[in-house]
Amino acid sequence: MRLILLTLLTMLAFAANSILTRAAVDGGHIDPSSFAVVRVLAGAAVLLVIMGARGAAFPSVNRARGVGALSLTAYMVGFTLAYLTLDAGLGALILFGVVQITMFLHAAATGDRPGLRQIGGAVVAFGGLLLVLWPGQQGGADPVGAALMVMAGLGWAVYTIAGRGARDPLATTGANFTLCLPLVAVLLLFGPVDISATGLLLAVICGGVTSGLGYALWYRVLTRMTGPTAAVVQLSVPIIAILSGAMLLGEPLGVTVLLAAGLVVGGIGWAVTAPRQTTSGSSGS
Asked: φ, ψ for residue 66 (rounded to 5)?
């Protein structure tokens, strides 16, 4: 029961990231570069303070930390810039659709032999993504925003896969945020800085609470999940974000987005819950 509650809290934090980012950036309260930098800075600060209180040592800077920092940077940059043009729900749908498909392919490439049900589910989910990305009157997400969110999805997939081996989730997340900060800060060189008190507050909450603590919690629950389970639970995030975006930000619940959400969630849920046959041991997706 405790694992279920912690997982639910983590998924709510993930959805809140979409809402907070969309409200701050698209709402004109802060420029996207400053939002990303403040978000990472707040996350690093909160985590380092907690690490200090616990007496936890900063993890050694090695290949694993490099992967964590680079993948977190790709996610942060793509995620923030994408919300200049994408609704919160649509952005979350693209993000976690890409995440699940990437994790599915990683599992297949590292030992899991996909069956017909898994392949069929992945095809259905991919069709859902195409539905919202395909140019048209009802579909056709902004191509630049969609491409940025795809980049964010790939970054988050790598970050999630790497996190399953974290021995100290809090310290690992703190190190990732700290090493990510100078990389994200480069964004400030390419645009004007425009920060209001509201934008600063939203960025701090998003960074220190729903990102920093949320990601540390995610790394913690990942150690108690199988790869397929980790993939399945994240499917709740787009639905939470779509409903929250409609209620809190007044975003429209279009038929195309709802249908695409059903295809992505249903297709990948069908794929990753299928019985798996392995050829060389279980996967660490």
From this structure: -65, -45
Residue 120 CB-density burial (10 A; 0-12 exposed, 13-18 middle, 19+ buried): middle
Distance between CA atoms of residues 66 and 260, nearest Å = 35
Question: Would you state the structure tokens that stand for residue 16, as one six-digit string?
Answer: 């809140």
pLDDT in tens, the chain (285 residues): 788 888 889 999 999 999 999 899 988 999 998 999 999 999 999 999 988 888 877 877 788 788 999 999 999 999 999 988 888 878 888 898 888 788 878 877 777 666 777 778 778 877 877 776 665 545 557 889 989 999 999 999 999 888 777 778 888 888 999 999 999 988 777 778 899 999 999 999 999 999 989 988 988 888 777 666 676 677 778 888 888 888 888 877 778 878 888 887 788 777 666 665 544 433 332
Read off the amino acid at residue 23: A
Q: What is the dihedral of CA 7, 9, 12, 14, to 10 degrees?
A: -60
Integer angstrom CA distances of residue 141 from 138, 150, 275? 9, 12, 34
Partner residues linked to 277 by β-bridges: 113
> Is residue 261 helix, strand or coil?
helix
**Cβ partners under 8 Å of residue 36, min gap 6:** 76, 77, 80, 184, 187
Q: Is 112 helix (H, G, I), strand (E, B) or coil?
A: strand
Quick one: 100 exposed, middle or buried, by C-beta within 10 A (0-12, 13-18, 19+)? buried
Closest residue by Cα to residue 233 from 25, 15, 34 = 15
Q: What is the pTM of this model?
A: 0.78
Q: Alpha-carbon distance 277 to 250, whole Å?
A: 45
d(CA 20, CA 199): 9
d(CA 34, CA 204): 11
